[in-house]
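#lab-general

N.A. 3:47 PM
ok so I finally got the sequence cleaned up, no stray characters, all 392 residues accounted for. can someone with queue access submit it? mine expired

B.Y. 3:52 PM
send it over

N.A. 3:53 PM
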Amino acid sequence: MRHETLAGQPRLPTEVSAMNAASLNVKPAYLNISNVWKAFGEFHALKDISLDIREGEFVCFLGPSGCGKTTLLRAIAGLDLQTRGSIHQGGRDVSTLPPSKRDYGIVFQSYALFPNLTIAKNIAFGLENTKRPRAEIASRVTELLKLVGLPDQGNKYPAQLSGGQQQRIALARAIAISPGLLLLDEPLSALDAKVRTHLRHEIKELQRKLGVTTIMVTHDQEEALSMADRIVVMNHGVIEQIGTPTEIYRHPATLFVADFIGEANKFAANADKGGVSFGAKAFRSAPHQFGPGTPVIAAIRPEDVIPHGPGARSPGAPDIVQQPENLLDVTIGEMEFLGSFWRTRLRGKELGDETLIADFSINAARRLSLAEGGALTVELPEDRLLVFPGRA
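B.Y. 4:20 PM
back already:
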């Protein structure tokens, strides 16, 4: 699978992974996924997936519904074997092993607790299958209940706990046998927003404390950005990009990543030397290697648009006065209040028929007295104006 970088150069997912590993001076891979395919009849849910995950790393598989992220997790768990390719964990080939022979704990979206067993019995279930002494099991259950912040809930049943508490118990059960790998299949999606925000922090802190290698499947961008050491962005059964949250957000390798992670303005443009042109204006942009006149997509995130007050354009200013580049005179259309910022829709002659969406902080809106119908000058910083191949 070829991946277009900002400069239009192909890059493979394995190459991206290797670059990240080299730059961070990291440990060798604990989990190695090599050339994995998964077919359901004529449909390929996974297409030549290769990925290395380091020991103790927290990795998120992120993508829209149907992208293959859960299929990949199930292949790692042995719940749905890959059509071809190999999976190694801790140096051991687990490609064809049944789930019972693999070293992992798993937490499902639905919690999957046994409703007829107490909380303590739910946690102890996997431990009892290892034939450990009762005293040792009881001590471990007590330890885990304290670890997940529910020390006095052992005698209750799942139905007596809230959704967030049940998910903590499911997590305690998954780590009870001290697995080498922890798999989380959209564990927070059934919870309300406040509980989800609180619990994702707790899960990350617990993972750091235990040092267990963890893979989490999610379609929630905010979840992945806040929890992961690295994110694997997937689409249509392939890996679009692998990187840290900062790398994924600030330096998207493809237009899909730029558009899926956060928000992005997209403009059909033509490449110029050192920039692009769209609407009725030429702009300097992030570096690219597209030839002049090549059809491209120019993209910029709403929060990267910089508002300037009156006087930002000074045609008569002396040459020694450095002025901002990529300035646009616009009219403010609709303004939408979103709590910590205003989302605005900007239009202007230099944009042609295009609309530019920009997010301005509450302080900036107050300082510049922004209002619908008002005039404004904005800047599109050249390092944040990204260039991708193709047309929108």
